[in-house]
Design goal:
Layout (H helix, E strand, L loop, with lengths): L10 H10 L20 H34 L11 H26 L6 H25 L3 H18 L10 H4 L3 H8 L4 H8 L1
Helix pairs in contact: 2-3, 2-4, 2-5, 2-7, 3-4, 4-7, 7-8
Length: 201
Amino acid sequence: TNISDLDDLSDRELITYFEEVRVDETLFVYGNPADISANDDEANYLTSPIRGLLAVLMVICGMAATLYYMQDEESGTFARVKQRRKGIAALGCVLTAIVNVSVVVLLSLCLSRLAGNIFKEIFSMLLYAFCCASFCLCLRQIFASIRSYAAIIPLLTVVLIGVCPIFFEFRGMSELQMIFPPTYYVKAVYDGSYLIYMIGY
């Protein structure tokens, strides 16, 4: 109808030409992300948004736990802890919250059939928990007051979602991505070298 060059052809001729052209490829392919191998690039695009968003959620929980620690420290809860051991106390408080959340995240990945090798998942989750705790405690050194630390959480959440390879992989921002822990966790599932980077982190 829209192509005037075909006006001279009859319906029978159009049907003949139409039937001669065979397209073997299917227009849509249906599949389950769990059926795709972890090394497949397609698996990266299908599973990283959920995994990445859960990783960001763990960082948010770590920052909230750090806020609670800062409140407890101000109220004198850790007054009897020696100064040189307060770092260990802070790490313990933040890790406790993050490990609890990490169990739920790991169960979520397993129930949604997005988890790979369970031993690798547990190991990378354990490393990631330490990365989150370290990141949150480093932020505490920069934003020393409860008010400033609380104010940075929403902004930092947006930055984590935008910069880390959750929805998109930005090639020119790899150095900036390496500052934030979710980058290591998302990439560690597909590249084992990031497990070593997490230990260094």
